[in-house]
């Protein structure tokens, strides 16, 4: 999460340089930099408007064709069509009328409708049940194609998300455990 905050310049590093393609991000216009990124986090922000309007927060001038394409890539189109008013269905405050998996797939559609060069996934599947996680995982696999993707994973059982990455950039990880030894988890045979 800290790496994502640094990339988006929510704060700047005290030491060292954060760069993209060898360019210090402090030299880039903030609006331009953030415009090149799409974020899907565990804490997705949905508003009490329609499904369509929530997706359009990613691209206010999006056409209906673009919205449908984004929802298809996010594995959301089928469930949206089944809602009482389809894309015009109000989702309730904070998406209260949708399941966790449905909210997450709308958040993915909102991120990818921007066609970002960099996709940031901050614990994007950590709060989902196993059925929803499979659907969201497929959507993230699709959304990550052809773009740089930075994945933050806390739970080791979410490590399967890394199959979408061709190049793994290692960050220094500080693990905090309530009990047990963290090194045991890191040496788990599936990691």
UniProtKB/TrEMBL annotation:
GO molecular function list: ATP binding; ATP hydrolysis activity; ATPase-coupled transmembrane transporter activity
Pfam family, one: ABC_tran
GO cellular component terms, semicolon-separated: plasma membrane
Family matches, as SUPFAM superfamilies: P-loop containing nucleoside triphosphate hydrolases (SSF52540)
ABC transporter domain segment(s): 1-126
Protein name in UniProt: ABC transporter domain-containing protein
Organism the protein comes from: Papaver nudicaule
